[in-house]
Amino acid sequence: MGSPGLGNRNNGRRLGITEPISLGGPTEYDVIKTRELEKYLQDVGLYESREEAVGREEVLGRLDQIVKTWVKAISRSKGLNEQLVQEANAKIFTFGSYRLGVHGPGADIDTLCVGPRYATREEDFFGELYKMLSEMPEVSELHPVPDAHVPVMGFKFKGVSIDLLYAKLSLWVIPEDLDISQDSILQNTDEQTVRSLNGCRVTDQILRLVPNIQNFMTTLRCMRFWAKRRGVYSNVTGFLGGINWALLVARICQLYPNALPNMLVSRFFRVYTQWRWPNPVMLCAIEEGSLGLQVWDPRKYPKDRYHLMPIITPAYPCMNSSYNVSASTLRIMTDEFQRGSEICEAMEANKAEWDTLFEPFAFFEAYKNYLQIDISAEDDDDLRKWKGWVESRLRQLTLKIERHTYNMLQCHPHPGEFQDKSKPLHCSYFMGLQRKQGVPVNEGEQFDIRLTVEEFKHSVNMYTLRKPGMEIRVTHVKRRSIPSFVFPGGVRPSRPSKVTWDSKRISDTKVSSHAGSDKSGEVKGFADGQDDGKKRKRVDDNTDAQSRNSKHVTAVPSSSPELHVGSPVSTVSSCSAKGDHSDATGFVEPIREKPESNIVNGFINSSSLEEFSSHNGEVDGSAGSTPPNKGLLVTTDVSSCKEAENLAIEKIMSGPYGAHQAITQELEELEDDLEVRNQVRSVGNTKAGPVESSMSDSAGAAPVSSSNGAGPSIGLHANGGIEELEPAELIVPITNRIPSAAPLAQRKPLIRLSFTSLGKASEKSG
After folding, report:
1. Could you say which of 161, 187, 203 is where a domain stops?
2. Residue 21 in contact with residue 633, Cβ under 8 Å?
3. Residue 11 lies in a domain
4. How confident is the model at residue 445 (pLDDT cuts 50, 70, 90)?
5. What Gene Ontology biological process does one annotation of this record name (predicted)?
């Protein structure tokens, strides 16, 4: 754990591509709050015991011996001369949370085996080494994944979970003192080796680029715990994973090199609340390198221009580590940053404590509509493979729903799986759904995502290793119908009586904004003329907003009482080409002025990004000394200079990052969905980004669909929504790749959400 007052090991030297925001040291308050934070993290069980730490070291030592024995056996079997056999060597490196020193009890250890040029990945690593491990009694749950983007072999060794990668270098002999941080190590290696080495190289570079490793570790441990509590820790579902959070924290450490974890946590939220995504977060300048490997560069590569939240790795080849982020997940994370910033300010005023910051996000109280994705297989091995594949595709469902509803229906994927103990070999995933906030509600408006869901299921079922029994089912469920197995102990909780930070702020927001609410969004009545359903709806919504442990809202009027799919979420700009950051409610993000002179049709003007490769003469991000007291903000009491600090953050944003912009659609997904692009063109959308503004004044218009009548549509219907699903084989074909089926008109809709009928539905199910 961090020691308050631990000195800056890089005093006088600048780390990062800009000057620090503040060189101020800790106050007595910071020392006290940091000790409180460390005790809190220890009390919640984030630190492993000494015995477990020793056990991990023993396992790693044993694994190193095993790969050395393996490579000698390989050298003999290949008939190499005796000298090479004697010198044959392989070496184990660690990376990820274990290497960064922020792993918790029972965590996996990310490891890398580096071998010589004659030890192949396919035959020797996944062949001979796999065979050796399978015969060892200490090894259990051994499963190779050779066809993964980064090939990996997972197993448990004496109960310790190991993820083992392999890198085949061009060297005949692997020296024991091998330095894999040198770029030359990548010469004459294949793509899998470059990707496998990347984890270790990035982790080591992060540790070199932070001013105080101990403070970095404590802050990162805190932020990882916070992200998991708030449901935003998951790379595969479109949030951020371990390396992403490490890079974000490392950048804050560079900007506040002498700060303790208490201040670093506070400034983390303050900086990233004001960050103008998609400006990239970088720890050092991006170098082209001499090996010709592709680095992140939106000037050259169109796909890089579509990344919404670029967080760039510091080791060559520099890449965007957060390409999975979507418009919905970015909006959720930005809202969480805002919540964290406000709680930290409340803590400074003694109005909140650390446990307030770490209040869990009550996902199943947050929305009224959910998608439930159930998968099953015939045995454990098949289910493990099927789960891995489906999880990798869930992000595509989020993107497809966003696109096919023109960002009017927002998705919140839950970053985890649930298992019903009564159904072995099954597991379930959930996704919260809500209408976009701040847009006027059209009476009877519905979202028809039948074909979107079928398209997703079709892509999942294209799995090349699919076997009989591997099934997927998608259903629409309301909050009251959420299965009990998702709750702790399998018991659905009663409405929470505890007043949380989230519920209190939501209540305050509703009261403060009630006078200015937009009457046009209110429900005028239902088809049957009954009014009691509306009254019940209002009571239900009020209860939800008061009790829900959900995300915080900033000045969003409760203009649509019939639309409370959970509580409103502040509308964060999805980084459109025009850079407009005000939504229909009038809410404007702080310090969001975007220079537009360097933007052409939503793309980057190359001249504005020359500083990406080298800024202020920086080569490695740490060269050159900073004169004493030089910084963007020079003060010993940063907390009393918030305005000056905000200006310093703004100065950073307008400095080395230029005017990097992105449109909300990702080129990668566009390439996968050519038919969607054609449908968009057919309804008159000639822009690269999704159509959002046209939806607010489309009441009474005909449903939007493709020219062939088979595309996803947003129907504006007066009747109540039908919310059950039909079997996959009964669905209309999406493209000519899908077998023909019965006409759409003869079938019930898969999922049709009618938000204006929720009060009526509540009455029926209440």
Report:
1. 203
2. yes
3. no
4. confident
5. RNA 3'-end processing
